[in-house]
Design goal:
The chain is an all-alpha fold and 416 residues long. The protein is built from 16 helices and two strands. It has a two-stranded antiparallel sheet with strand order 1-2. The longest helix is centred in the C-terminal third of the chain and has 32 residues, at 326-357.
């Protein structure tokens, strides 16, 4: 049965690597290869383990009995119930079902990791998978900037109209997605790079940080740049004021690069951003459906109908479009119960990760999760101007790292 546990860990590692390195529309012989298939294998392996192992069944039973002690899981379950109920009144029931099943899959993955990742070695393996893929993603992103290999036409711009020539996506399909993916790992890497005592490991972490930071800059994503600045200042305030000198030096050097300086000037147009119109439509939906919302995922479906009703809020004549704000998305789609459980979930994650950093005796894990605490706050901030919490390539990795933190706590791995 240990072999199945071991394989579950390996499958989750492969899932992280596949999501990060394989583009969404990747096909072999005309067949679309999706990360969801690997996730399904994780679930099937776990079910097989339950069938064959009495120990696994006992562990599951104990885990279910302890749900009341896990505020993250409680809020996830409440939010999923609100999503399920919303299917009944959603205009686009297929989309509502799809998004609900996606979120339920995160709950199942979280629960499996919590119960099955119960050794220091398995935690190390999962964390290493993210660090490894972030390095590969960054290297390819930098290569892509100079060669444009694998870059979609929509990310190559006419410089007479736009402030940048290209915005790299690497293997993450979108510049904003790429920025968010790297920001989730860059602050843990910064903490490891500063405080790691082993010179060889320290060198690897510093190189990884350097590669990640260059790639984040080359996304030319204003959201990612703001997230990077916010995270840097949080590190200064929360942990080490000396980092301020590094930040000031890095900013000074960045401004010397014409492309970065030109893109930075775009921040003055932030309140004229088309996203503001998308947010206004969300607010109109909230006013029309304050209690229940319009149904899970259905902002996207009803966007066109609201543009017809309020033509002044039209954005490039799209008939369907996302809200570009995770909080307004939840409020407009799931109403007051949805937003309450969603915010409760986000607060619980921050609280529990911060609490964990004070209990860990493993210095590697402690530094990693101090950095991830910063990354999580940055990630929440970035969701004000994007739906990043609902992009599978990022969100799956986010939930995996959160679930690992709970596995460490639940299984008392390196806890004081």
């Amino acid at each position: 049965m240990n072999k199945i546990n071991y394989n579950i860990t390996n499958l989750i590692c492969l899932y992280i690597i596949f999501l990060s390195l394989v583009p969404t529309n990747f096909k072999i012989a005309g067949f679309n290869i999706k990360g969801d298939y690997l996730l399904l294998l994780v679930f099937l392996a776990y079910i097989l383990n339950l069938i064959l192992s009495k120990e696994a069944r006992v562990k599951l039973f104990k885990g279910i009995l302890n749900i009341s002690k896990d505020s993250i899981l409680i809020f996830m379950i409440i939010l999923s119930v609100v999503m399920i109920i919303s299917i009944s009144y959603a205009s686009d029931k297929a989309l509502a079902i799809s998004e609900t099943l996606r979120f339920i899959s995160y709950i199942l993955l979280y629960f499996i990791i919590k119960l099955e990742i119960k050794t220091e070695a398995r935690v190390n393996k999962l964390i290493f998978s993210y660090i490894f893929t972030s390095i590969i993603v960054s290297v390819f992103g930098i290569i892509q900037y100079f060669t444009r290999i694998g870059l979609g036409e929509e990310f190559i711009y006419n410089t007479s109209k736009y402030s940048v020539a290209i915005r790299i996506t690497s293997t993450l399909d979108n510049s904003n997605t790429l920025g968010a993916f790297l920001l989730l790992i860059v602050f843990p890497l910064i903490m490891l790079g500063i405080y790691e005592k082993d010179k060889n490991k320290k060198t690897i972490y510093i190189i990884a940080v350097f590669l990640n930071l260059i790639t984040i800059i080359l996304t030319f994503s204003r959201n990612a740049w703001l997230g990077l600045l916010l995270g840097g200042f949080l590190l200064v305030i929360v942990y080490n004021w000396r980092i301020l000198f590094i930040m000031i030096s890095a900013l000074g050097l960045s401004i010397l690069i014409p492309q970065i300086r030109t893109r930075a000037m775009d921040f003055k147009l932030i309140f004229q951003d088309p996203r503001v119109k998308l947010w206004e439509i969300a607010i109109k939906m909230i006013k029309d459906h304050p209690i229940k919302g319009v149904g899970n995922g259905n902002y996207y479906t009803l966007y066109g109908a609201y543009v017809k009703k309020y033509p002044e809020l039209d954005y490039n004549h799209h008939t369907n479009f996302p809200a570009h704000n995770s909080y307004l998305k939840i409020q407009s789609e799931l109403g007051i119960f949805g937003i309450a459980s969603f915010l409760g979930l986000l607060v619980s994650i921050i609280y529990k990760i911060n609490k964990l950093t004070h209990k860990l005796k493993n210095e590697y894990f402690r530094l990693f999760y101090i950095g991830f605490f910063i990354s999580t706050i940055v990630f929440y901030f970035m969701n004000i101007s994007d739906n990043l919490l609902f992009v599978p390539k990022i969100t799956s990795c986010f939930w995996i790292i959160v679930a690992i933190s709970e596995a460490i706590n639940y299984n008392k791995i390196c806890i004081r």
